[in-house]
Input
Amino acid sequence: MSKLIRSNHLGTVSEHKQIDFAYKEVEVSDIFFQDNEKNERCVQVVYGRESLSLKMSYFIGADWLVKNQQAIYVAPKINKGLQEIDYLGMLQSCLTHGDIAKNTKDLYHIKLNEPFIEIDQQMDLLTPLLIMQFLQTLKILVKKGLKQSYYKVERNLNSRVKGKVLIAQNIKKNIVRNRVTNTFCSYEEFGFDSIENRVLKHTLSFVRRYLSQYPEYLGSMKCLIDYCTPAFERVSDEVNLHELKAVKRNSFYKEYQEALKLSKIILKRFGYHISEIDNSSVEQISVPPFWIDMSKLFELYVLGLLKDKYGDKILFQAKGSYGNPDYLLIDDMQPLIIDAKYRPTYQQDKNLSYIIEDIRQISGYARDVGILDKLGYHTVEEQSSSVVSCVVIYTDQDEGDKLPNSLTAGKSIEGFTKFYKVPISVPVLKNQTAE
Output
């Protein structure tokens, strides 16, 4: 049943719901993911003859409906029993595969330049997600090895001169104090103590301080912190974020770009002051407007399960002539086209065999010559005579959380050749009760 959002600061609703909106004499517009009208709507405004309602999609987060007056918070929910999804557990599960981390670019959108929204501490979906992704990215970086580079050093040297003498500082620190043997110099050194590494270590200190206050998150991330920390022993955490603008990109160390981007977001989240973390234990906190794409998260979660089962035989979003299917199973015995659907419709209606839009979409992939070529059907004769098996993996909390031994041994979709559907449950938070 829909709830009514009235004229107050924050209204709460669960994803893929439609609610009435009672806010008079203001203009409310659709909210698009990443503020791009080419993307899906996070919130759609539905106008009636005498009413206005808001339709949620598959995004969770918080944003302004009326800037600085009325905000909306969309919580992660599964319709069955109204259990709350453990979205962080889903992310952690898939990020155990290092190559999946690079596909999280479009998982969320943060509006750092918008006014912050005050929410309850337990509603903070953003910070744990950023920290989880930062630690996983940092692990990949540390495993490859920290980058060494030249970095600027300013030191007061005794009985020697190196690099450039800083006249003003030398007068202030040495001449007026009669330290005639000292010279304040600026020069470059080569090593690990670069600005990039110092920013990462500084962020790691923020993360450790934050997680110490939330043991429910620390348990799952402690091993990542313990893995990364020793690599920064020779790095200081004194940082000047303005120096980052002068840093040049290195294609071999491409993980630095992602890690530093996450660092800046996390540091800005706490106003660049580690003392602000001590205030994060209060009941109310302020966060920038943000959205998390649950459909994308489910897609990555299923990718992790498929990688666990099939390893390198799984191709993710392989490019074809028609489009990019979610997954291809490259197998000589039984190649598959697999698509993930974060749709509660399949679970809500147990008599529903299929959604025709899904069938049409995947059927297009199965006739795409570019996709067929990747699956091993290279000649026109092979492509013309082959009917590729297609699988839809969808959410169903009544089912198990493991993939079956064979994706085609389960329920076939009646009326279509070699079409199958496989249910999978997603992690939910424990001790959740129905509303």
